[in-house]
Write a structure and sequence with these properties.
- This protein has helices at about 45-65, 70-85, 95-100, 105-115, 120-130, 140-150, 150-155, 160-180, 190-205, 210-230, 260-265, 275-285, 290-295, 335-340, 355-365, 380-390, 395-405, 420-430, 440-445, and strands at about 5-10, 10-15, 30-40, 305, 310-315, 330.
- It is mostly helical.
- It has 3 domains: about 70-130, no CATH class; about 135-250, DNA polymerase, domain 1 (Orthogonal Bundle), CATH 1.10.150; about 260-445, hpI Integrase, Chain A, CATH 1.10.443.
- Strands 1-2-3 form a 3-stranded antiparallel beta sheet. A 3-stranded antiparallel beta sheet has the order 4-5-6.
- Strand 4 and strand 5 form a beta hairpin.
Length: about 450
């Protein structure tokens, strides 16, 4: 059964215990909310799981709102005022903007109030003449507002993706509050932004973080401010514009050579100390070139072992794919096919937890001396796969389609079929004991 789903009266329900941090604003200890979806119509709970995530977003947003009710009441009052102004066929503007309108526009606002008893309704009068102030959203409430603004996008993410996505935003905000204090987002100055940049610059200089980390935090902050300002029609000064740190062009992650994979990674006993799921998923990546997250999140309906060409289908499966081009079918061959047959239902131990999978694989490579160089990681398997496609003279579109990359061209039809893809997979698939030439850097190392 999907996480946080229960059954009651023939319907799927959202089930959760109240988290300790919500005790002050949530009276219910055990929370049960109907998804409105009948179990008979959704046996596996797929649709119900998506609905449950939407319920969870709304629930957590309401807790955040009630924790700062004054600011939230202002937001709700402003939304009501905009709806009333729209009904009067007027654009809502705060009063300081209304007074700068032309005489004709001001007369039009006043004339709209002369119909019926509108001028005796304070809420309608406030909507017409801009009497509801813009909300004061504090930095401490920015993530909650951002989550509401991005509700549609968040609902498509798996619980693990959502946790990671929001966690990075919360960390960025936490650092900003530590540097400049908690303040209304419309009161953040250019000087505040530069103090934040100075904080990250010093951490980069001291070797605590990379410049890319600092820039990601700046991107999180500016992205949240932009989304929330757009939702509430706030005019925020672009104080973080041009504040990114200069970054040296990063060296690309090196590929594992075919020789290293065959003679080291696939050597007898090399991977025996891995747990079974880790080892099998690792082997599937070798001859598919798929992203680790794509392999560990495979579900049984998309593992086509009984097909005349065994293959895997990379699909969203209640999560968000990295890009639209990630949706693809990849034939299975060699050690990858053998490994996938051991787990026809996928890899539940690591599902929706790519960080744990990558950390375990990289730790194993490090502890067992299986890194070709100190810069090689799990992801180097994917780069090695692409290198072998290049050496097999696969067409550019074929390489992009197998890798799930943007072809930069309009997409027509279903792309290359499995038979043609399999032709190239067979050319580059690796297996224990194969004879492959050693790469130049290993030849030089042995000569020394």
């Amino acid at each position: 059964m999907p996480e946080r789903l229960g059954r009651r009266g023939g319907f799927w329900i959202y089930v959760r215990r109240r988290p300790p941090e919500a005790a002050a604003v949530e009276p219910r200890i055990n929370i049960r909310i109907s998804t409105g979806i009948r179990i008979a119509n959704d046996r596996a709970g797929v649709k119900a799981a998506r609905k449950a995530r939407q319920i969870e977003i709304d629930l957590e947003a309401s807790w955040s709102a009630r924790a700062g009710q004054g600011a939230r009441d202002t937001v709700l009052a402003l939304e009501d005022a905009r709806e009333r102004a729209r009904a009067l066929e007027l654009p809502y503007k705060p009063i300081e903007d209304v007074v700068r309108e032309s005489i004709e526009d001001i007369h039009r606002r006043l004339a709209a109030l002369e119909v019926g008893d509108r001028r005796h309704d304070p809420a309608t009068v406030a909507a017409a003449v801009g009497g509801v102030p813009l909300p004061e959203i504090m930095l401490s409430g920015l993530v909650a507002e951002f989550e509401i603004a991005k509700k549609a996008a968040v609902a498509k993410k798996s619980p693990g993706q959502r946790k990671k996505w929001l966690g990075s935003k919360r960390r960025a905000i936490s650092v900003l509050i530590d540097v400049i204090g908690d303040r209304a987002i419309d009161r953040i100055s250019r000087d505040d932004a530069l103090r934040y940049v100075d904080h990250w610059t010093m951490r980069v200089v001291d070797g605590e973080v990379q410049a890319d980390t600092a820039n990601r935090n700046l991107t999180h902050i500016s992205g949240m401010l932009s989304a929330v300002a757009r939702r509430h029609r706030l005019r925020l000064e672009p104080v973080f514009t041009g504040a990114r740190l200069e970054v040296e062009r990063a060296r690309p992650r090196p590929p594992f050579s075919a020789w290293w994979i065959v003679n080291r990674l696939l050597a007898p006993g090399a991977l025996d100390a891995m747990n079974e799921e880790l080892r099998a998923a690792f082997l599937v990546i070798i001859n598919t070139g798929a992203r680790p997250s794509e392999i560990i999140n495979l579900r049984a309906p998309h593992i086509m072992l009984d097909s005349n060409i065994p293959h895997i289908q990379v699909r969203p499966d209640d999560r968000v794919l990295k890009t639209e081009f990630s949706w693809r079918d990849i034939p299975l061959g060699g050690v990858s096919l053998e490994a996938m047959r051991q787990f026809p239902d996928g890899f539940p131990r690591y599902r929706d937890n790519g960080d744990a999978f990558s950390a375990a694989a990289n730790k194993y490579l490090e502890e067992h001396g299986l890194r070709e160089t100190e810069r090689h990681t799990l992801y180097s398997l994917r780069h090695g796969f692409k290198d072998r496609l290049r050496e097999a003279e696969a067409p550019e579109e074929m390489k992009d389609e197998l890798m799930g990359h943007d072809t930069k061209k309009p997409k027509y039809g279903d792309g290359h079929g499995l038979h043609l893809k399999l032709k190239y997979i067979k050319k580059i698939a690796l297996a224990p004991g194969m004879q492959v030439p050693a790469p130049l850097h290993l030849v030089k190392r042995s000569a020394q």
